Amino acid sequence: MKVLMSILLSLLLAFQPEGLSASGEQPGSGHLRNFFAEASGVAVAEQTADTPDISAIIFGHVGDSYEWHITRIGSRDIAIFLPVIVRTHDGLWHCFSSRHLLHPAGEHAAALSDTGALQETPEYEGLHIASEGEPHAGKIVEQDGRRPLDISITKNVLSLIMSSLLLVVLVLLCARWYRRHDSLREAPKGLAALLEPLFVMVHDMAKDNIGEDWRRYSPFLLTAFLFILLNNFMGILPIFPGGANLTGNIACTLVLALFTFFTVNLTGTKHYYEEMLNPDVPGVLKPLMAVIEVFSALVKPISLTIRLFANMLAGHIQILCMVSIIFIMAKYGGVLLGGMSALTVLFGIFLDVLEMLISFIQAYIFTMLSSIYIGLARVKH
Amino acid sequence: MSLITPDGGLLFWMLIIFGIVFFVLAKWGFPIITSSVENRSSRIADSLRKADEVDAREAAISSEYGKMLSEAKAEQARILKEASRTRDEIIARAKQEAADETAKMIEHARVQIEAERVSAAADLRREVALLSVEVAEKVLRGRLASESEQKTLIDKLVDEAAKAPKADS
I want to staple A268 with a disulfide (CB 3.0 to 4.6 A). Which of A102, A195, A272, A372 is the partner? Predict the structure, then answer.
């Protein structure tokens, strides 16, 4: 299954640059260059005047921002401005709406799509958003270009708050059903019936991989699984309150992986540490094996982080690329635009459905691996 | 914005919010759900096992019942057979007794008839003797009308009487 999907994904990735470069000589290749340059952290400001800056759009969508841009009606941007909370280096806390730092409605989108990278952003209380090319591009910086301590409620944080509230409400409603009904005599109904298969799935995973004391870990596994699944699905939703790429953000997956890491290593048995630090190998190999074991324990959360983050990010970028083809095609006339649009819509549907599958699979894999790591740390002999 | 360097602000909020979500759900959400779901699944497993047991027991009971039924039928047949034999015996014995009684009565009747007959014969003989005595008287009277005849008779009688003691002794 995984192999099949990775083949599919690589095929799709291989297809996209072809489609783009075949359609237009300059914009396609320029876009691609931007695309990869951006991904590796180098800003490229090269841009032809009449093509939309696809990579800016895509990275604007998958990245974080200080406002939640919902849509544009005519020349009016519909956006939610979010609170900025920063502590500057002079020790002062600043808290204000991000409206002050962004372009007035209407101009912002133009700035993004046309010459966005070069346009200066407004300054407020000695703070402004760094433009492309500067270090910390897109983030709030002080006048001297240093980053303040920034715990602003960004788009991802708002999405995190909303989906967390939703998750808590869903699970507590579910729990209320079980509390009010005799689960021995009644089959679950409604929400409980919807979620119970997921609970049972995670329980089984925990039982298989952890063994007898699985009940201790099932709350964490259930929380992680439902959290990732819900946020993955929210990410696929194209409009507010979905569409924030939370699980495709490395900070989010890093925290999840750290929870797993500490759960594994703080509740590991004596035998687990003995195996790790004093492995059962001939004397000379002992230090080498110990180093490798410790290293592998440290790599596990990193692999968890990267796997979830990269999968979700890649999925988002693919779908956005598909949609962007329509805008790139706009200047090549009706026939090409129409044909490519139809193709793009078909591929877009396919990718959306695939993305739903991946959402589930990634949540499953994260939980499964977490339970396996926990199980490995619970060895008893 | 670089995609692969984690952003401090989001990291901070994620840590706090996920921590809170985890705490809330682990305290008020999942324990009851987990225990309910587990209870139900163990209950279902239990029920299935019990149903199997009941099935097995029922099968045993029904075979037992079948055995009892066939035994009862055999017993019934045996009892019926015995009853009919007893009846036959009783009838036979009754017949025998009736026959015996009849035979006895017939015998009794026969004896009585014999006695009657004997007494009747004795009566008849006595009557015949009296009659013959009377007849002999009349004959003798007729024959002893003359003297000579009386004399011959007396002689004859004396002869006879003389001969009779000799015959007795």
Answer: A272
